């Protein structure tokens, strides 16, 4: 089995989670990305969020929020994603950058619009009353 190692930023406001859609994609993803050789979780988080959203993660506010596993969206069977998630404050103004075409705030009612690993994260956030809404 192939495992894709990803770091993601869970940022929730008013019961909705910040999500992104890359150019040419039909699903939304929690922002973040793949670790580069030798990077720590936090170094990956800072780099990916700066590249995708043009903001700076405040590193001393970063808190581990969980590790989630699922079949990787858009990859052959047997390719899994391991998503290590963090919450953190940021500085700057959220703006799509790099391959990001759209930034949106999603609720649990939008669960069917995100990747399989993000659906697991949405379930957890809904169970803990952090993500509002219910199925459409």
Estimate percent helicity.
10-25%
Average residue pLDDT = 95
Largest sheet: 4 strands, mixed
Order of helices and strands: EEEEHEEEEEH
Task: Supply the CATH architecture.
Answer: Alpha-Beta Complex
Distance between the termini: 34 Å
Count the domains: 1
Q: Which regions have little confidence, pLDDT < 50, spanning 5+ residues?
A: none
CATH topology description: Nucleoside Triphosphate Pyrophosphohydrolase
Query: What would you call the shape?
Result: globular
Tally of individual helices = 2
Superfamily at the CATH H level? Answer: Nucleoside Triphosphate Pyrophosphohydrolase
Pfam families: NUDIX (PF00293)
Protein name: NUDIX hydrolase
Keywords: Hydrolase, Magnesium, Metal-binding
InterPro entries: NUDIX_hydrolase-like_dom_sf (IPR015797), NUDIX_hydrolase_dom (IPR000086)
